[in-house]
Amino acid sequence: MIEERSYRLLFPSELEQHMLVVGETDLAICLPKNIWNEAVEKGLRDKIIEHRQYLQDFIVEYPQFAASHQPLEVPLAAPPVVQKMAAAAKAAGVGPMAAVAGYFSQLAGEYLNRLPGCSEIIVENGGDIFIASTQERIIGVYAGKENPFTGKIAVRLAAELFPCGVCTSSGTVGSSFSYGVADAAMIVAPDTALADAVATAAANLVKDGDCVAAACNYAMSIPTVQAALIVCGDQLAAAGQLELVQI
Q1: Whole-number Å distance between alpha carbons of 133 and 120
Q2: CATH 3.90.1300.10 applies to domain 2-246
Q3: DSSP letter, residue 35
Q4: What is the mean pLDDT of the chain?
Q5: How confident is the model over 134-163, as pLDDT tens digits?
Q6: 161, 197, 237, 247: which is deepest, by most CB within 10 A?
Q7: CB under 8 Å, gap of 24 or more: what pairs does 216-220 form?
């Protein structure tokens, strides 16, 4: 857990970092100074609790929603959190829970983005990030402490892309289930739930280093995906609206 969360020490120094944990939703929130207060924290916590309850109640009635590794159709009357996760999963070809962390990152980010003076926002939830910003942002690539690219490369995203989601999945780092062995599959998309689901799908496709290009191409074939970066061992593939930079 220390290794998985150590990247939080590298968030932008000009923003204040705050933590908010509700069950499995573990958010690191970076905001301009003088935005965060007890009322903002309570309002955001209540919003997350509300949507988590919608999801949990739905899973009680439809337990396959939490268990499936394949897309599922959901009732038209399902709550928005369920609808959005199901749509992201369908587009990516994975199970709905592959979109859950990205969904809650964006839910928090959009809530905060409506506050006066809050134009710079980074919300991270287990490596799945929502960003709203008026300036370019550089995001490091973490592919495990043994990977040769970790600490050496980052991606630069132009301000024109924001707000967007930047989500990373892995078959070798962290505890999330994966069918593949990607050290990192990073996806950029306007919808953070979609970026999360596509990151899972791309990581699933990586069986060895020779698969990184095919996984990258698959990710880029999904509508609205803006950029992809796939790492496995010493092999890397990248495409779309990102610039690789050396650290």
Answers
A1: 5
A2: no
A3: -
A4: 94
A5: 999 999 999 999 999 999 999 999 999 999
A6: 197
A7: 219/185, 219/187
Q: Where are the domains of the chain?
A: 2-246
In angstroms, rounded to a whole number, what is the distance separating the alpha carbons of residues 216 and 239? 7
CA distance 131 to 155: 14
Residue 86 region, left (φ>0) first, then alpha (ψ -120 to 50), else beta?
A: alpha
Enter the tokens of residue 42: 């309570």
Place of tokens 């990586």: 206
Beta bridge partners of 30: 17, 122
Rounded Cα gap, residues 222 and 92, in angstroms? 7
The C-alpha atoms of residue 101 and residue 95 are separated, in whole angstroms, by 13
Q: Tell me the CA distances in angstroms from 89 to 43, 78, 184, 211, one per residue in order.
A: 28, 15, 19, 22
- pLDDT, tens only, 207-222: 999 999 999 999 999 9
Name the pTM for this structure. 0.94
